[in-house]
Design a protein that fits this description.
The structure is a homodimer of 268-residue chains. Helices cover 32% and strands 25% of the residues of chain A. Chain A has 8 helices and 9 strands. The interface between A and B is medium-sized, with 27 and 27 residues. The structure holds a DNA duplex (27 and 27 nucleotides).
Chain lengths: 268, 268
Amino acid sequence: MCKQHNKNLYLRPMNKIDSFVADGFTQYLPGQSIDCVIIGYNEHGLNVLTLNWKEFDMWALPGGFIHNKEDMDQAAIRILKERTGLELAFLKQFYTFGNYNRRDFEEFLKQFEPKELKFQPFINWMKQRFISTGYLALVDMKKCNPTPDFLTESCDWKPINNLPKLLFDHQHIIEKALEQIRIQINYLPIGLSLLPEKFTMKDLQKLYESILQKELDRGNFQKKILKLGFLDRLEKQLSGRAHKAPYLYKFNETKYDYLLKKGIGFIS
Amino acid sequence: MCKQHNKNLYLRPMNKIDSFVADGFTQYLPGQSIDCVIIGYNEHGLNVLTLNWKEFDMWALPGGFIHNKEDMDQAAIRILKERTGLELAFLKQFYTFGNYNRRDFEEFLKQFEPKELKFQPFINWMKQRFISTGYLALVDMKKCNPTPDFLTESCDWKPINNLPKLLFDHQHIIEKALEQIRIQINYLPIGLSLLPEKFTMKDLQKLYESILQKELDRGNFQKKILKLGFLDRLEKQLSGRAHKAPYLYKFNETKYDYLLKKGIGFIS
DNA sequence: ACAAAAGTGTTATCCTTACACCCATGT
DNA sequence: ACATGGGTGTAAGGATAACACTTTTGT
């Protein structure tokens, strides 16, 4: 899952950082950043994609800046692509974080110093005030190819219930994103992006339970979901397990897209 | 309702524009703006507060910029205060507009030119790319004191179903705001901010009908709302009309605030 | 045969909807 | 008295929640 790159910032080929320091940030809108809460789901629950700045012993959300002539949504799509390889996913802006003190630089700089002079322009860029727009992405972990950016050395999934200490206000950003999911799950058929193409009703139920953080009744869940009609029932799974084989389902994209637009009201 | 100010930008006392041009915009974050969709409700339905740049024959949403050391939310509160006099209201960020081409400057500049040289720095400030965060405010029109800013000459309520042509993407911003209200009304007890302290059940029903753009059943609405329990019934109104006097109600702030946080699920 | 988990059914309760009915009031 | 609109009631239908029953399958 995790790609280990060069172990130390100062031993690492510096061309990318150098070029960012030299002129990269003249290509970006100043003071405006994007943070992506990329959420994946596996048998242990929900996970968030995080980046590790090992030099500073810090984990951070994947983020980036907006090119001068780039739509903000486009920038988010680009960042998602760069970190995961995915071009298609549920991706949605959810909140913009604009508090003056949202980035606590004391701790950050403590770990950065003493450093080479050449980093000064980069530090200055980083030290400016940023207003950051949060994007929520729901992805299929199995289709992801987590890739660190030029500042970080690893890119890893972290279980949402056991997150490491995060940079700045990133913990808060994740909480706000989860809040959004829990609201949206009540009127949008979230799920297609987080599950593989074929899945069982139990898979979907576990996903909903992960999101809502509570247990749901098996029989009632099945009836409720099927009545909404955005699932197509497929052949039975050859389960090879000591019980009745469950049906497989897939999303009926026509109906699913329709409900994505129209919204639904369900799941108490 | 409308305050007529000086009729022409060029005859108007220039000190405020001059000082903005001179150094005002060094106090603000570049490229970041706020647009407020301020919504009021009266017997004719929902209204939006708009500003008129008469020189350009354009209407615009109240907006502004963010001071260098000011929280974004604080800036929105300040703008709301400046345009309406209100300090307390339902005020909530709802979306950030970041498309590269969201502001069509051709039309804007066409109307601005030919102009005096002194405006050039201001035009340059305005011509930069802005990413704008939209805030939704729900207010009691009767408590508002609409006041134009230093660039505009009047500040007026416009009925939401009959808006004039608006600047840039402001029409789109309003539509997005309305979409938000219609979603939020399903899980938040919206209403306190839009109505006077005391009101009848019919007033509240008409408000919901304005927002949802459909008629609701009188009896069922009453039962549903009362069961939620955020209203206190007061004495009967001396109606002086040819029918039974209706009760007056007011919001029970304790219960209302609780439901604002917790959310509700209702109104189909 | 049995355990385990899937699929489906049953029931009591609650909520929603669409009305109907009665009440208070000014003309 | 009657038209108007307020307050409340009712009955049918639908949704929900809790749980039970049956089916399939590997051990």
